[in-house]
Design brief:
220 residues; mainly alpha; Endonuclease Iii, domain 2; Endonuclease III, domain 1; 2 domains; 12 helices; 59% helix; 0% strand
């Protein structure tokens, strides 16, 4: 197992390396709006969708409705049109309507701030729930883990996990809490630009000496 000192060193090096890259779209929404509802909906739109597509879709949707009360009044086809071409846009439009209805009926239109309550919503997984709490409610109670965080931390040898949910659990055991809030953003940017999923740019990696390169069969 990697030491806390080495983990901290790696995180600091990665943070410095990704300063020039853009934040993930969900973080941009959170920074601009400080609205848990918009963070939740943007995160749902972002699943299996590129950030550039998510950004435009979120903007179009929130111009029509930026709260659950107005959103639930929209016809599903209108939501579909606004969010197209995000992945699975028809399913996501349906889920958004369902989520808004549930928020109104059970939570007075407010997005809950516990992972247990958020997981009660159909279409909301552990990553989406964690992102909503951390970036929407501004509470670093979890480490959101997307595919980049999952792949990178396994490559580093920090964890040996099969899925992002297990990775989140393990990272919360070994990563100092002061890094919890930024870790997802930092490693997503790193994974999008340097430690990419296929053929990572090991030749220009700032943490090459600290990486076990587990599972890396081809690099650049």
């Amino acid at each position: 197992m990697k030491s806390e000192k080495e983990i901290s060193k790696v995180i600091e090096l990665v943070k410095k390396a990704v300063e020039k890259f853009e934040n993930p779209i969900v973080t941009e929404v959170a920074d601009l709006t400080r609205d848990p509802f918009k963070v939740l909906i943007s995160c749902i739109l972002s699943l299996r969708t590129k950030d550039q597509v998510t950004a435009k879709a979120s903007k179009r949707l929130f111009e029509l409705a930026d709260n659950p009360y107005d959103m639930v009044k929209l016809d599903k086809r209108r939501i579909e049109k606004a969010i197209y071409p995000v992945g699975f846009y028809k399913t996501k439009a349906k889920r958004i309507k369902e989520i808004c209805k549930k928020l109104i009926e059970e939570y007075n239109g407010k997005v809950p701030d516990t992972i247990e309550e958020l997981l009660r919503f159909k279409g909301v997984g552990r990553k989406t729930a964690a992102i909503t709490i951390v970036y929407g409610h501004k509470r670093a109670d979890y480490i959101p883990v997307d595919v980049h965080v999952h792949i990178i931390t396994n490559r580093l040898g920090w964890v040996k996990t099969k899925n992002p949910d297990d990775t989140m659990h393990e990272l919360m055991r070994i990563v100092p809490k002061k890094y919890w809030y930024d870790l997802n953003d930092t490693f997503v940017k790193f994974g999008q630009n340097i430690c990419v999923t296929i053929s990572p740019f090991c030749s220009k990696c700032p943490i090459y000496e600290y990486c076990d390169r587990i599972g890396v069969t081809r690099s650049r």
